[in-house]
Every structure is written in structure tokens, then in C-alpha cells.
Amino acid sequence: RRSFLETLERGTNLKRGGLKGRYADEIKQHVAQRRELQRLGIQENITVFWDLRKMWLKTHNWVRPMKKLKRTMQMFAGMCDGTVTQVEAVEITRLLESSEGRYRSGKLNMFDELRLAGGLVHRAWPPIEDTVESVLMERFREHLDHMHETGEKTIFFFVAPEQGLEPIIEAAQSEGATVVHIGRAWGARYYPGGCDFSVPIEFERWHNLQFLMNNPDFDDPERHGKRGLSAPGMELYNPGNVSLKVHSAEEELKFQYFHSWEKNFTMENGGVGSRFGPSFLGRYVRPSLRLNTTLAKAFAAASNRTGEVPKKLKQWSEGKWQEYSEDGTKFLAKLEPFKFAKLTDQEREAGQRDLDSLSKATDEDYAVLYWNWDTHIAQNVGPNAREMSGRIIRYFEGFLNMSIRRVEVARWTEPWEKLGQHPLDWGYAQSQLDCVIHRVWPPTPETTNRALARNVATLARAARENRSAIPTLSKPPRVAIFLSDELIFDEALEDAQDAGISAIWLGPITQGAYYPAHSQERICLDIPEWFQTVIDLAACNRNPFAEGAHTPDAPIAVGQQDAVPMNLAWGTEGLRLDNSELVLGAEDQEAADKEGVSRMA
């Protein structure tokens, strides 16, 4: 119930204390130094070295393992009147990475729980008797050197059996380090820094301490003495501060040595995501283009192409790995030569010049999105249709780092159908966001593309005349995005390119084309797959382009809080779409009459 400092102060009391002579004098001086640090606001960090294999935390159904871990670490911090900033342990395992399959199966692994709580768990193999002790001692030496180099005030806390630790602890004590040691037997030992003795302190046995930590009423202030706990109002322990962070796989040291015949067994088949890191620890990153890929990142990836065709191609598509043999890769290279082609100097220069211009865009600059619904369809996999449509629009705003002020959606619609006549009408939900809905008939492959391309050409002609075809906006758009499965006739995008509008065509399967403004170049881009993008956006509870936000393709560790607050309506917030009629020239009006496309906003 008291901290070790309070216990030491009572121990030096002339009437009640048990310390006499020089021991009492040195302890008084040590306590006064630590109290002075607290008065000055200097934080003393606590580094815990925990032999979790021998000092195991017993778990029961009525207390979650994570809650018990946090209780125990708070107790360590309260004992030493400091803040626990590092907890290190060693796991005897063959695995090079934690098993995703084992975690999803529900089998408890306290080492993985400690990793989730922010502990640093190293890996060692084979299971020799003193492996854990040797690794912890090596880490202890490294922390001592760091403390002497930086001058940080650190208290070292050992949770390990009693045998074999005294020599190195006493050596560290002689160098000025304060060490606390808790073993399985009764009591604890406090080694004040700079002294040549230790102070035994009465403490519960580890077994009895586990019983208290497993009690569900442990934190209940109105417990009234039930389940063997003390009366209400009496503190069972002094909880301190714990400040830990989830570590990366690179920070975990691996002291693993295998026989030649063991190498094939060092990685357990951990299930989904285990090949690329466990998702529950926040180490999984999908091996494809990320959800927060921007136009600048896509262009940088295209600039890095060398023109070499790999012997065997392996790419992430449709939610799984697609593998091509050597002959299949050669055929794909002939079918899609632009996929591996190296950018020319003219393409690289035009793209970089246009990106530099886009980076200097003002608030008046905007983009227009042309959406072929029949090739880029969305599904009800989470949010409602209105929110999901807004998330897709906001996604392209993040892709361009520019606001989208107009969205035109073209879809095949029966002539007798009315907008919103059935509950799953996405056109009605999109019209509520002020999108322009083009109802196209008959359902031929080129009608939807023509309906959208005609309006792209209209904006291009208006831009060449230095005017805006959208009456409510003062200037032409800076970027036009075209979503379609194919664009055989891309004259409209080339017209926009000549008029100073950067055009981007994005297909449904990881292919795109970039038309930099004021140039004649067309650059092939690798883009995230549409099917996977829609699923990820449905799972996003915050804007994926917000700084510090985690995305479904690289999730945060279980139990950790995202730096960006959750917002389930981020798709519809902040949209400023315009659905007014375009100001058509004579040529545009004639083309519209010939096309016979109806429009409903």
C-alpha cells in the first residue's frame, strides 16, 4: 500500500525504524535526493526486466489478461514512485514473428499480450536454462551505458528468481544505479544507488500477489471486504504511471540459433497476414499500393520503373496474390508493354512540371470527377450509400490533395425508372450530395463513356476560351478524373490536356493514365485496385489521408488508440459540390442533341 520511499522513510525513524547507524544516514540521504528530484519535476523512468517464463502471470476467466498486466505494471510504478517507460522480457520460441493464426484462435499467449501492452519481448532459441537470464543481463548492460551517456534518471526493476542476479546488480549499484528486485519468495530487495548494501522490504509472495490481481473487485472502492479483500476505503496498492508504446519488429532482438534441419520450421503457418507481419500488433502492411497513395507517390513509383520485365511476376490483385509463370509474364509484357516501360525524359519532365504546378494550387483551384458507375460500382459493405459515395469522393480529394467541386455519374437506367424508386438506388443517394446524374440508354458499352467524355470536352473548350463552363465557379477546373474500364476514344482528355487541365484516367484493375497539362505525354500509373479500395473505404472510420491516421491495409495494434479521432461521417462532411447546368457553346449543344442523353440532378 505504500511506496518503497515511504517504507524507507519509516525505516529510518528513530522510534519505529529498523535501520541504524550509517545505513540509516545513507538511506536518509538517498531518500532526500529522490524527493528533491520529485520537487523539481524531474521524472524518474522505470525499466522493468521481467522473466515472464518463471514469474508467470496466472490468468482466470473473470479478469482479462491485459487488465491484469496493466494492474501489475501500475503496481511496479507505484512501488518506485516513478513512471514505467520500458518493460522487457524474453520468449523462448522458434518463430521469427508472432503468429496471427494463434492470436485469432483465442489461445492465450502472455508474451503477445505484453507486446500489445507496450512491452519489448525478445526472441531466443534453443531453450537452454540460462538463456533468458543472459539476454536480460545483456540488455541491462546496454541500458546502464545509455543512462551514463545521457544522464537520464532511471530505476531498474527486476522481476525474476533470486539466484544469480546479485553480482551484476551490485556492480550496477556501485555505478550509481538504483535497482529493485522482486523474486518468488517473500519480500523484495531495494538497492540504493551509490551504496554498498541492500534493504530487504516486506512484500507479498508472488503467488499471493497473483490472487489479488485476479480478483474482479480489486478496483472496486465499494468492495465492503468481499472476496477476501480489505475493507472499503483502504488502498490495496499505490498505482503509478505507465507510459509504454508498441514496438516494431526491428526493435525486438533475436537470439535464435538453429540446426540446418530446423530452418524450415522457424516460421509457423500463422494464417492470414502472417507472411507480412501480424495485424494485431500493428505490424501488418498489405503488399500492394496503400490506400493513402497520392498522385505524387504514384508518379514517383512510375519514375522508378527500369523497363526490365521480371522472369516471374507476382502481384496483388482481387484480394489475393496472382502469380504468373515465365511464359505468362512475357505474354503480359507484350499485352501491356506500358506496365513495365521506363519513362522517357519528356514524360518525366512533363509530369514533374505539372506536379510542381499542382503543389502550388490555391483554394480557388478545384477538380472534377467523372464516374462511370457501371464499371466502378460500389457496394453496401458498411456505411449507407450516401456516406459511402461521399467517402469515395473524399478519397479522390486526398489522392489529388485538391478539393472536388463537381461530380458527374453516368449509369444505364431504364427509361421508365424514376430516381429513388427503390431503396438501394445509389443514384438517389448521390443526388443528395449534389452529384450530377446522367441517365443513359440504351445499354451499349460506349454510351456512358461518351456521355461523360462529352462534358470533359465542353470544359476543355471553355478553358481554351478562358472561361468556366460551370456558371457558379469563376475559373475552369485544374484536374479532371475519369473513372472507366477503358477509354478507347481519349480525344476529350487530350483536349483537356491541351487546354491546361491535367487529366487522369483510372481503371478498375490497378491501371491508370496521367495526362500532364500543357504537354503531349501520357504516363502509365500503377494505382490501388478499385475493388479493394471500396472495401477499405467502407472499413475506414477516419479520413485515410489525415496525418497520423491508420488504414485497413496497415491497421493499428489491438488496444491502441489512433492519433486521429474516429469520425464515421467523414465522407459527407466538408463536401462542396456544384450540380448546376453547364454553359454550352453552339457546338456542344449540337453534340448533346445528337447524343440524346438525359440528365437528372
Q: What is the mean predicted local confidence, pLDDT? A: 83
Termini Cα gap: 70 Å
Strand content: 15-25%
Helix content range of the residues, please?
Answer: 25-40%
| Helix/strand class | alpha/beta
Per DSSP E runs of 2 or more residues, the count of β-strands stands at: 19
Radius of gyration: 33 Å
Largest sheet properties: 9 strands, mixed
Description:
The protein is α/β, with parallel strands linked by helices and 601 residues long. Helix content is 33%, strand content 15%. It is built from 17 helices and 19 strands. The strands form 3 sheets. Strands 1, 2, 3, 4, 5, 6, 7, 8 and 9 form a 9-stranded mixed beta sheet that branches. An 8-stranded mixed beta sheet has the order 18-17-16-15-12-13-14-19, sandwiched between helices. A hairpin with a 5-residue loop joins strand 5 and strand 6. Helix 1 packs across helix 2, helix 12 crosses helix 13 and helix 14 runs parallel beside helix 15 (491-498). The longest helix has 20 residues, at 131-150. The chain is elongated, with a radius of gyration of 33 Å. The termini are far apart. The model is unreliable at 223-234, 264-274 and 595-601 (pLDDT under 50).
What labels would you give this structure?
17 helices, 15% strand, 601 residues, alpha/beta, eight-stranded mixed sheet, 19 strands, elongated, single chain
